[in-house]
Automatic annotation (TrEMBL):
It comes from Cervus elaphus hippelaphus. This is RNF13.
Length: 65
């Protein structure tokens, strides 16, 4: 089935929406840093620095076979 040229054209609102969603997704994928500050009942605080994410095992130095 062939699509007509009119079906492929997007309105300005549709283009704006698509670009806004893509920009928002891109900005959310940028690396960020965070610190967690926790308090207990004695009002003592402790800071937990962020650590790099680890997904699975490390790859062997000789690579995958």
């Amino acid at each position: 089935m062939l699509l007509s040229i009119g079906m492929l054209m997007l309105s300005a609102t549709q283009v704006y929406t698509i670009l806004t969603v893509q920009l928002f997704a891109f900005l959310n994928l940028l690396p960020v840093e965070a610190d967690i500050l926790a308090y207990n009942f004695e009002n003592a605080s402790q800071t937990f620095d962020d650590l790099p994410a680890r997904f699975g095992y490390r790859l062997p130095a000789e690579g995958l076979k």
